[in-house]
Amino acid sequence: MAAHTKQTGDGERSIERRTLLQALSGAAAVGLAGCSGGDGGDGGSSSGSDGELGERVSTLQMEYWSDYGGFTTTQEQMAPIISQGIESLGTGVDIVPKDLGTNTGQQANDSNRANNISFTWWVPAADRLDPQELLNNMRLDWAGANGKSNTSNYADCEYTRRLIEQTNAETPEEREEGLNETIAYMSQDCAIDNLCPVANIGAWRTDMVEINGIGTGGLARSNAEWLFKSELTDGEELIVGIDPIATETTNWMTHTASMPEAMWQHMIHSPVHKYNEDFEVVELLGSVDVVGSQEVVVELFDDATFTNGDPVTAQDVKFTFEQILRGGDAGAYPGAAPVPYDAIEAVDEQTVRFTFTEPYIPFAETTLMRWGILHQESFEEAGAVENPGDATFETPIVSSGPLEVTSIQQGQRVVTEPHDGHPEYQVAQPVIFEAYRNEESMINALGAGEAHVGVEISPPNATRVNEEIDNANAEFTGTHTSYNLQYICHTAPCKFTEFRKAVGASVNRDLLVNTAFDNRVEPDMFPTYISENHPRFPPEDMLYEHPDSGGDVEAARAMLEEEGWGWDGDGNLHYPPDADLDPLWPQGEVPSAEQFPCIDELGLDP
Amino acid sequence: MSSLRRYFAVRSVQTVMMLALVMTALFVLFRSMPGDFTAQMAASGANEEALQAIREQWHLDEPLYMQYYHYLANLVQGNLGESPVYRVDVWEFTKLRIFNTFILVAPAMTFTYVIGVAIGTVAGSNRGSAFERFGTVPIIGVGSSPAFFTAILLVIVFAVWLNLFPTSGMTSPGSTEGLAWWEPYLTRDFAAHYVLPFTAVVCRYLFIPTLIMRNSVVEVMGEDFTEYYRLTGLPTLTRLRHIAKHASIPVLTIYPVSLARALGGLVLIETVFNWPGIGFTLVEAVLARDYPTVQFVFFVVAAFVIVSNFVVDLVYGVIDPRIRLEG
Fold first, then answer.
1. A602 phi/psi in degrees, rounded to 5
2. Of A135, B141, B196, B307, which residue is least crowded by CB atoms under 10 Å?
C-alpha cells in the first residue's frame, strides 16, 4: 500500500485516490475471504504458530463521540477506514456512536465491557502544550470503577512510576528527560494509538479582516494570538463565531467544556505567562522564575492592570490559585487539578512565591499557564469565595486580559471591548463572540458577512468556504493533539500488546488524511498521546513506529502470528491457545495491590 | 349544580391529577436512571467530601420518597433546582429560552392554523375541484420534508442568494446593547430575523390543520343540516362559516398538542436559524445529563398540553353544548 503514496513536484505528499480505493476494496475483499497476508493465504486452511487455535476473537466494539459537531463528521468519515483495517485482521468491528458523556462516564466507572476501542480525539487546548494532563489520564490509580478518568483503563506500574518521577523531577532538564521516557514507554506498549493530528480549521472574511497571529497554533480557540493581533478592514466590531456554551454563564470556571475556558481564561483573563502562536513562552502579567523543583516565583509587571484600572497585585495572584483550590474542593471547578502546594505567599505587592511539598516542575507550564488572574474584589463581591459554584458577575466584568466583557446575552453573545491597559496586547477593535448552534449557521453568516471569523470548522465545510464563498478563506493547521484509538486495555483482546500494535499497523492512515483532510495534515505514525506537532514530542528513535502509513496488513498479521494467534478456515482471528482472556480486574472494581504491587510502593489510591 | 359547573369541576380535578401524575412520573423516571450528576463531577476530579456535601445539599443520599417530598416542597416555594452543568438556577436558565421559543412558535402555529383552516374549508367544500385535488399537494410536500431541509432552503434562497433577511440569530450583534430584556423583541432588527424561522414553522406544520379541516368539512358537508342550510338559501360564505364552526372541533383538539409538540420539538429549525430557544437547550441538557433542566422543560411541555386541553375542553362546551352535557 505504500506504493500509493507519492511525492508531487512541489514536494507535498499526495494520493491517487482511485488507485487507493481500488487497493482498499481489493484488500477488503481478500480480508473477507480470509486470505490476506500471513500463512492464511491458502484460502481456507487454519493458521497459527502451531496450528492450534484458541478462542475466536469476537466482534469488536469501537465507539466514537456522536455529539461533537464538525469533529463527529470527521470521525464518521474516518471510522469505516479504521474498521476496514481491523477487519482485515479477521475480526469484525461494530462502529457505535456514543455521546461523550456516556462514553467517558462508562469508562471512568468501568461499566461497559463491550467497548474495546474508543475512537476519540483530544481538544488541542493551550494548556495541553504541556502534556502532563493528558499523560495523567493513563495513571494506574485512575483505572477501574472509581469515577476517575483513565479512559483506556490502562493499568501499568512502570508507566505510572515514570509518570510520577517526571512530575517530581528536580530540574527542568530532568523532567524533560523523564517526560520523554514516559511517553516512550507508553509508545512502545502502544497503549494509545495516534492516527493523525486534530486539524484546527478556521475561516475568515478576507475582505473584512486582516488575520495575523495564526502561526503554528492555527486559527483556533486554543491560540488566542490571532484574536489579539488581527485587524478589521471593514466594520467596527470583530464578530467571531463560538459554541453557545461559552455564553451561558459568567461563572466560567464551573464549566467542564474547554470552549468557555479558552475564551475566558486566555482572552478575557490573562495568565501570568503563556505560549504564543509559535509555541514560545510570552510573559503577559509578569516574569516566572522556576527557582527549584519545589519553588516558583512570579514577579508582576508594574504596568499590569485589570480592566477597571486596578493594578494586578501579588495578592490577586495568590487569591486566584487559592480560589481554584476552593472551587476544586467544593466540586465546583472541574478543571482544578490537584497541585502539591505547600504555600502560596504574597511576598510583597508584586512578588508571589509558590512552594510545593514535593518537586513539581510542571507547575509553571501547566497550572500557571492555564488560569487567568482574577480580580479578588470582584470575586468577593460576587460571593464566589463563600460559594464558588453559584457566583454571578455583573457586567462590565473586571478582568486581567486583553478584552473586557461589557455585556452577555445568554446563549447568544458575549460583547467585549479592548482593555487599553494590558501590558502585552492592544486589541484593535471590540470583539463580539457570537454563538452559533451549528456550523452551517456559522458558515452562512460568514458568507453573508454577518460574522468575520469562525473556528472549529469541519473539513467539508472548509472546502465549501474555499470553493463557494468569495472573499473567504479556510485555513488548516495540524495541532498538537491527535485523533487516536484508545484501546481498552484491561479486557481482551486489547489487553494484548501485540493486538494493539497489529490494529495500529492495519490502519491506512494515508487514506484517513486523504478522506478527512484532503491531505492537509500528515499521518501520525507513533503511538503517543500527542501529535508530532507537539513542542514536547520526544525524539522519534525513542518511540514505537508503525510500519507503513498506508496500512500494512501483512505485517500486522505477522505480529499476531508470532505471538501464537491464528486464523480458522473462514479467516476468523483466534487467540493463542493459552491466552488468559480474563479481564485484569472484575467489572465494577479497581486494580488490586496484589496484582499491581506498585499501588503500595508508590502510595497510589485507585 | 349546573351541567357547565359540574363539567368544569370534573375537568379541573382531572387536570390537576394529570399534572401531579406527570410531575411524579418525570421525577421517578429521571431518578431511576443510572448514576447522578455527582458521578460526572467525580469524573471531573471533584473530591469525595465535596461530593458528599452536594449529595446532602440535594438530598441525594436519602430514600426516593424523601427526595420527592423535598422536591415538592421546593417546587411549592418556586425552587426548581439548579443546573449542575451551568450552575445556575433552572428557572433563570430556561425562562428566556422558553419565551424565545414560545414567541416563535405561538404566533407561527396560530397563523398556521388560521391559514390551514381556511384552505381546508375551501378545499373540503369544493369536492372534486382541481383545488381540492391538487391544492394541498405542495402543502403536504413541504410538510413531509425534513424540517431542516425547508429551513436551509429558506436560508439559502432568501438570506444567502437574495440577501433579504439575516441568515440566523434573533438579533444582530451589537444591536441590543443597553436595552431591557423585552425591548429587542420590539425592534425592526428582531422582525427581520423573525421572518424566516416563522415561515419555516408555518411551512412545516401547515399540512396538519389543512388536511384535518378538509376531511372534517367533507364529513360535515354530508350531514343533513348542511343540506338544510343550502335549501334555506343562505349565502355561500355564511353557509361555509356555519360548516367551518362545526368542522373545527378536530382542529381545535389538535391545536394545543401541535403547539406543545412544536415547543419542545423545534430543535432543527432552532438550530438552522441559530434561534436561542429551548429546543436546542433541551438536547444539550439531555446530552450533558442536566436532569433538573430536562425535567423542568419536559414538565413545562407536558403541562402546556394538559392545560391547553383543559381550555379546549371548555371551548368545546361553548361550541357544542352536547359535550358538556355528556361530560
1. -95, 0
2. B141
The whole-angstrom separation of Cα B56 and Cα B44 is 19
- Listing DSSP states for A317-363 in one string gives HHHHHHHHHHHHHTT--TT-----EEEEEE-SSSEEEEEESS--GGG
* Confidence at residue B179, expressed as pLDDT on a 0 to 100 scale: 85
Q: What is the ipTM of this complex?
A: 0.78
Are B159 and B196 in contact, with CB atoms under 8 Å apart? Answer: yes
CA-based nearest residue in chain A for residue B288 = A101
Residue A193 bridge partners (DSSP): A485
The maximal CA–CA distance of chain B, rounded, in angstroms, is: 83
> How far apart are alpha carbons A460 and A456 in whole angstroms?
12
At the topology level of CATH, where does B98-326 sit?
Answer: MetI-like fold (1.10.3720)
How many angstroms separate the CA of residue B172 from the nearest CA in chain A?
8
What are the residues whose beta carbons fall under 8 Å from the beta carbon of B16, sequence distance 6 or more? none
Q: Is B238 on the interface with A (CB under 8 A)?
A: no
Q: How many Cα neighbours within 13 Å face the side chain of A90?
A: 35
Orientation of helix B188-205 relative to helix B137-144, angle to 10°: 100
CB A360 within 8 A of CB A343: no
Condensed to tens digits (0 to 9), the pLDDT of residues A311-366 reads 999 999 999 999 999 988 877 887 787 899 999 999 999 999 999 999 998 899 88
> In chain A, what residues touch B266 (CB-CB under 8 Å)?
none
Q: Helix H segments across A2-68?
A: 17-32
Whole-prediction pTM value? 0.80
Inspect the interface and report whether the beta carbons of B42 and A432 lie closer than 8 Å.
no
Write the pLDDT tens digit of every residue in B3-44: 777 878 888 898 899 989 988 998 888 777 655 666 656 555
Look at A105 and B43 and tell me if their CB atoms are within 8 Å.
Answer: yes
- Which residue of chain B is at minimal alpha-carbon distance from A338? B45
- The model's pLDDT over B238-266, given as tens digits with 9 standing for 90+, comes to 888 888 888 888 898 888 888 877 876 68
Rounded mean pLDDT of B145-164?
91
**Range 334-353 of A in CB contact (< 8 A) with B:** 334-338
- Contact criterion met (CB below 8 Å) for B127 and B218: yes
